[in-house]
Amino acid sequence: MNPFNYEAEQLLNVAHQVRRDIVRMVHAVNSGHPGGSLGCTEFLVSLYFRQMTHKPEFDMNGIGEDLFFLSNGHISPVWYSTLARAGYFDPKELATFRKLNSRLQGHPATEEHLPGIRIASGSLGQGPSVAIGAAQVKKLNGDDKLVYVLTGDGELEEGQVWEAAMYAAHHKVDNFIWTVDYNGQQIDGPVDAVMSLGNLRAKFEAFGWKVLHCENGNDFAQLLPVLDEAKALTGQGQPICILMNTQMGFGVDFMMGSHKWHGVAPNDAQLEQALVQLKETLNDY
Amino acid sequence: MKDFPYSESKDTRSGFGAGLLELGRTNPNVVALCADLVGSLKMGDFIKEFPERFFQVGIAEANMIGLAAGMTIGGKIPFTGTFANFSTGRVYDQIRQSVAYSGKNVKICASHAGLTLGEDGATHQILEDIGMMKMLPHMTVINPCDFNQTKAATIAIAEYEGPVYLRFGRPVVPNFTPADQKFEIGKAVMLNEGKDVTIIATGHLVWKAILAGKLLAEQGIDAEIINIHTIKPLDTEAILASVAKTRCVVTAEEHQFNGGLGESVARLLAQNLPLPLELVGVNDSFGESGTPEELMEKYGLNEQSIVAAVQRVMARK
């Protein structure tokens, strides 16, 4: 049971605030990755405020809980904000993001014991393996909860993800949902220009996965049914993949749809311009 | 010079296999993973008795390390098994981020380390693994010397909470350490007390150090011999106490000089007790095909090399 179990309207409320948090966090330290963070806001908010059984008191082993792993660790702002707004730690701590002696490292880490983080990520391609390991142990422990992982799409250029994809199908890790943030952008430009992924759906299917597609992961009305369907498809002998189309920078008009805001912070004027578009719904930290 | 009787020679990797089997029976949280080398790693007995706690990952070592890190979440103690080369260099970033930096309780168990892998040649003869692993914060690095000690080390690391690199090998070597000797991580084992020189050895070079000690005794040189099975954390107290007595030291290992045990000892002495040191190891070179004995002779890793190093270091006293 999710501790919030919010409906779409309440989720939208949280999403607005998470987006404000993201742009304010990266602006404050003039560094960080707003683009992918804004693009995955609906997804993270849906997991923590509706889909997952989880406990904000946080226990590393997470027995009896659904677990989430962020493989594309550079979108840490959206995760940190979502965790804080879900009660894992005080939202005031978001002000320490990327600063010296903070628990909110540039990329997620366990070294400083930030509640909600179970593995370091940032060097890409490692999250699916880790998450599948955790999912295997859930089976071994007789724990019927699920494991989620999010990767980027550019991240799929790393070979390790395909080792993990092969493993999960072979071992029938069917308590596992892998979502790909399919925004078509990476640092050096459009994914199709840098290193085309080809027919991604066919690739996952060829590896033995059940593949779902969400045409607009920035619309709760489209995202929630896909997440529900994915959950319903677990336990049937196949791992589940969701190809989730999103727009990098969604919610801030001048950041949308371009790889240019992958890892660049807004200046003072741009912050003002962004915040005008994002309603303060849960009080700024 | 003490005598070190033994009834048989065995491979250290079989010590790992025996230790893993015992852990299977005594610790339900122990699970094992292997990247298509179960025979070489001697994991067969564990797999036969505990098939549900074994995970075959195929030839995909990066994935194996990630899986193992994930398996700690939920309380398991994963032991990964493959060759030392594929356990370290091939997966350094996976170990660095998902295991060491994440502080995960993963035991990276690595066979066929060093030149004694033999005929397969330099692609497989890793001589840099100790260096890579000891540089990682949080990582413990262990290189036991014979079957009994490897078995005991395998069992001991399950009791320790944190990432461990356990290094062992392929050839049969005299199994001389007592079967009931407790394995204490980070604690040096004094093999022979002496007054003229300290010989600090690890892994397969421990037996060579014993053979060297006998040759030295015939020359009237009284060698103190210490088995350093744990390279990190290093038993600095035992080493400094011995060298303070003998006033010179030789290190011996099946590894590059760069990054090895000798380098750790050199740093310790330079900072605390700057006395003459000579190193036995591989000097910035890859190995090649050959029998283990031929390779150990060609690359200067046998008892004669240790004797020669002792003569050099004593002349510098």
Automatic annotation (TrEMBL), chain A:
Any keyword Transmembrane helix?
no
Q: Name one Pfam family in it.
A: Transketolase_N
Q: Which residues form the Transketolase N-terminal domain?
A: 16-273
- Superkingdom of the organism of origin: Bacteria
What UniProt keywords apply to this chain's record, in alphabetical order?
Thiamine pyrophosphate
What family is it from? Belongs to the transketolase family.
Q: Which PANTHER family would you find in this protein's record?
A: TRANSKETOLASE N-TERMINAL SECTION-RELATED
Q: What is this protein called?
A: Transketolase
Which source organism?
Answer: Rufibacter sediminis
Automatic annotation (TrEMBL), chain B:
Query: Which Pfam families does the UniProt entry name for this protein?
Result: Transket_pyr, Transketolase_C
Q: Which SUPFAM superfamilies match?
A: Thiamin diphosphate-binding fold (THDP-binding), TK C-terminal domain-like
Q: Where is the Transketolase-like pyrimidine-binding domain?
A: 10-175
Give the CDD domains listed for this entry.
Answer: TPP_PYR_DXS_TK_like (cd07033)
**Record's InterPro entries?**
PDH/Transketolase, THDP-binding, Transketo_C/PFOR_II, Transketolase-like_Pyr-bd, Transketolase_C
Q: Which domain of life is it from?
A: Bacteria
**Protein name per UniProt:** Transketolase family protein
The protein's organism comes out as Rufibacter sediminis
